[in-house]
Amino acid sequence: MTTIDLDATKFEAEKLFQRKRLIGFGIPAVIAVYFVYIFFAFDLPGLAGRANMENAVTLASDSWSYKVHVTRDNRSGNVTYAVEGERKGTYPEGQRPDWVTGDEVITIDLGGDIIVRYLPDNRTEIEIPGFQLIEAQAEGRTVTTNLPDNLPDWISASDRRVGITTPEGRITLTGARTEVFNYFPGWELFWFTLDSPYYGQALATILFGDQIDPARDNITGAVSDWWNNDMWRHKDVAWAIGETILMAFLGTMGAAIIALPLGFLAAKRFSPFMLVRAATRRLFDFVRGVDALIWTVVLARAFGPGPLTGALAILITDTGTFGKIFSEALENVDQKQIEGVASTGAKPLQRYRFGVIPQIVPVLLAQILYFLESNTRSATIIGAITGGGIGLMLTQAIQTQKDWEEVAYYIVLIIAMVMFMDWFSGWLRGKLIGRKT
Amino acid sequence: MADISLSGVPHHVDGIQASYMAQVQRRRLYGGLTLLIFVVLMVSGFNVADDRNAGGFWDGLHQIGDYPADVLSEAWEKRADLPALIAKYFPALVETINIAAVSTLIGAISGLFLSLLGTRGLAKWPRLIPLFRRISDIMRAVPEIVIALVLIFVLGGGPVPAMIAIAIHTAGALAKMFSEVSENTDLKAVEGLASTGATWSQRMLLGVLPQVAPNYVSYTLLRFEINIRASAILGFVGAGGLGYELRNAMAWGPGRFDEAAAIFILLFGTIVFFDQVSSRYRNRLTEGQGQ
């Protein structure tokens, strides 16, 4: 090799390095520039202004805790006790939490030495350590208090409404009602509502103890009370999860059934007519391109909201995807096996059945099962749009903006559901086509 | 010798044939049973879904075309306005694509780290492999809408909640696909680099990434296609972009169907365009690998 040759090679190599260096720095630079553009296009500097940190705090604290409302109606003087302030969580007549005492003067012990007293004639006394005794009088539509002018930031007061936020709980006073919210960790009434005889009973008592409800066997009674729990609606939730999985199952399997014959039509090996092939392929592209969102919108007009609409939307979109995958798999089948079957005198249909199908079944099953899992997630999303399944329950719970413990519950269930479907489809795949190593 | 084989063979073949036929029969039975269970599941599932739907399947079947026909006929009447409407909604389309692109980028970068940290032989902290795998499993399992809805409540509507939600799911999904690739990497390059005293990040950057880059880019492009659809859907629940405009246009009902049609066209065109582009690049990337 001469010197000139070496020089040329060296020059080539240097040029290559230079190009690689340019790409190596260029791509990260382009990405960085794009991020800067997005930073302003998405108005990230303004995000701090739009973000509602109070919402975040409510969300974070409500998802793992519950509050008990002690409400005095200032017109009638009646005091009610209710978990989350819901009618379904109201303590039955004559029962109340054990941190409330007294009859004429109702004393509410929030803990941390914070004590609220409901006095007769709509008067209220609030004792907070390190702060003066707050006295309030509700009259008509106004509230008069002895609060000083310069208030700490945990008290907000006007002549219509007084709000006091303490680490132990919140107190609000208006002319119409006086309310105390006492916070506790946990998901209250998750098992039984207050009207169930099993509320507050230990698990061992229910399983092995004496019969609690004279009319029913302990275990049947407890299961039925839990299943029909009004606050947490376990029955509806189970149905909703079933609906979501049903949507995914019907959609995936229906799509596979429809896509298989169409896949033959779109594959060059099995479909001699160019026009048919092209038409089928464009059909696949079209139904895939329209996308599940638009199919959902269109189908919801015809079938109304519900799981069937969601299942059909998944079915139509995935027919396109499956058709594409299946026809690609069909083009790659081994001709030898088909010839072997043909040599025994098999007719075309038999050739497909014994020469082609066994070759593509593993690919098909793997794809179908993978889509079954991924469609469980899509079904949750479509359910939120078209109104069916756990997706709808989640959207509703988020829209009411107060049942954050239910939102947390649904999120946990959704994640568990998807992970279960993931595991299940993997297990089924292992059973049906053998685990790949 | 000949005698023995002549007397022995027929019996032998009969036995084989009988056991073969029995086996075939059993297989057919199992196959038939599986098929039967499947058909029963499909039919009963369909009936349950039909029952719980607001409108029935057979009642609605002939109405499928009604809505598209209404939209199309109105759009056709006002076809002169269509280009203007498409121009009007173009910024929303850009936002939808931006959401998908940013979340794919962020997801791919985080998925890259998650997969490298969760692959045996490559992980920086081998003891933490199960931890990183569980993290990516959970991120993958969360549907985008869950995070998006919660974040919309906190951050208000707009593209950012959708971006974060899609990025989280993408990171988990890509981490799984990436680690399937990186499990099959040739460790010789990594060992060679280690022998020169390269740090972990140098080993990954120079030893692993060049091997896996084509597959990683191909998976990322596939994700980008999926994320465009996801970003349109999340818009529908209030996260900005084309989906949000679509919901508004639909809420107006008849009279504004031309706007809905313009959005349909934009969405359809975008999805098909990016599908075609990305599948072309993906084919090129994976073809280069085989040779």
Automatic annotation (TrEMBL), chain A:
The ABC transmembrane type-1 domain covers which part of the protein?
241-425
Name the gene that codes for it.
phnE
List the InterPro entries hit by this protein, alphabetically: MetI-like, MetI-like_sf, PhnE/PtxC
Organism whose genome encodes this protein: Parasulfitobacter algicola
| This protein's UniProt keywords | Membrane, Transmembrane, Transmembrane helix, Transport
Please give the family membership noted in the entry: Belongs to the binding-protein-dependent transport system permease family.
Protein name per Swiss-Prot or TrEMBL = Phosphonate ABC transporter, permease protein PhnE
The record's subcellular location field reads:
Cell membrane
Q: Does the keyword Membrane apply?
A: yes
Q: Which CDD domains match?
A: TM_PBP2
From TrEMBL, chain B:
Q: Where in the cell is it found?
A: Cell membrane
Cited Gene3D superfamilies: MetI-like
In terms of InterPro entries, this protein maps to: MetI-like, MetI-like_sf, PhnE/PtxC
PROSITE patterns in the record: ABC_TM1 (PS50928)
Q: How does it sit in the membrane?
A: Multi-pass membrane protein
**For this UniProt entry, which segments traverse the membrane?**
29-49, 97-117, 256-274
**What Pfam families is this protein classified in?**
BPD_transp_1
NCBIfam families reported for this sequence: PhnE
What family name appears in the similarity comment?
Belongs to the binding-protein-dependent transport system permease family.
* Name by which UniProt lists this protein: Phosphonate ABC transporter, permease protein PhnE
Q: Which organism is it from?
A: Parasulfitobacter algicola
